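Exam prep: given the inputs below (a chain plus succinic acid), describe the expected output before reading on.
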Amino acid sequence: MTQLNIDQVVEQAFAGAQYGQFINGEFRPSASGKTYDVTNPATGQVLMTVPDGGASEAQAAVDAAYAALPAWSATPAATRAELMRRAAALMIEQRERLATIMTLEQGKPLTEARGEITYAASFLTWFAGEAERIYGEIVHNSAPNKRIFVLRQAVGVAVLITPWNFPAAMLTRKMGPALAAGCTVICKPAEQTPLTALELGRVFKEAGFPAGVVNIVATSDPIPFSDTVFADERVRKISFTGSTEVGKLLIRNSAATVKRISLELGGNAPFIIFDDADLSAGVAGAMTSKFRNAGQTCVCANRIFVQRGIYDQFAEMFAMKTSAMKVGNGLLPDTLIGPLIDLQAREKIERHVADATAHGARVMLGGSAYPDNPSGTFWTPTVLINVSTDMLVTQEETFGPVAPLIPFDTEEEVVAKANDTPFGLSGYFYTRDVSRVMRVAEKLEFGIIGVNDPLPSTAQAPFGGVKQSGLGREGGSVGIDEYLEVKYVSLGI
Ligand code: SIN
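Solution:
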């Protein structure tokens, strides 16, 4: 794509756009007057300049969300649901523009960005339905002169902190259940990707959400924001998606005012291909899981275990098909692998590949930065063979397009190796043996299991991890519980 074309896309996508902090239903500059640049990871160029929120924006957002809470939580569920469905419909109507902005600031291929907008809207429609199904209970009485009622009510003001890899869907996966439950929200998108989030703020305004129900604070420095909201008693709930390291810090910070906290943290997903699997489906599945968003997802295959009898054949097919994947700017129609989010991401990949080769792994494909690479953020899809579980690439989340193939002999051995990690977000396996499906699914210590399915994420299923991959679940019928308090009323009569 020529520079001129990118400039045109940028001009069209941002025509008339003026970004501000979205607080109490209006877009405003930051009190300090500070701004920061949002860059395109595919070119390294500045895309837009946005106001830089700090403690005072965090405070204003809490004030607005707290003021809006009584009316919003008392709004009939059907009305809340209608507004949510309207926002979802607007997102779909504006999908092309929203997806283009996402690709510009995040880098993912446009087809994936379009898919993400649809996926993001689905959390609003799913939870609009759930809003109408929040039930209480009447329990049989403990004495003749008593009656027992159990109410489920909105937790209160919720702060939603989201990552850069899914700038729309991770927001709505939290906003959907929060708004459905009757909570008001303050969203803090990742520093790298505030534009999609601020666009969603505009969508919620257009849909007719009352002022203060949805607030969005964009900031280049999360610390003043987070110190302010964590210290504020009026904030009752924190939901965070990001690294395990930051998640642990947030658990500590939430202790001072005993906030409820949900965490969706890092993963180290095993992807197991047994020798009875449909090999082509296994290869295609491993590629889908591994290379979605250039390998920058918490649920992507991080360790690909292949049973020894089919190892060479699998590796050959996998490398051959992977070599045909087009790397490039996500705006180009045939791009399958876009840039990494930044140069730090590339350094991690370089470290993992160097460590693996130093310990005996062999590079079958790629292994280095992509040659045509103005921003330095493109990495050639890489296949490593003869990988063992003592290598860094299998112990840490690589978060890039690097596929380490690890041979194994028995089911027992691979289950033990797959579980040998402090993380437990998602795990996958391919087999045609029904008994094995049940055996292995029950033994794998992960919150999400894909059996012959590389993409299990969907609004109607619970998403979340065990061990150090998180607390709580997003999505599914249980997702709304994270935003509801249980209150017991005992009535003497
Ligand atoms: C993530 O990687 O954090 C989310 C991916 C998904 O929703 O499938």
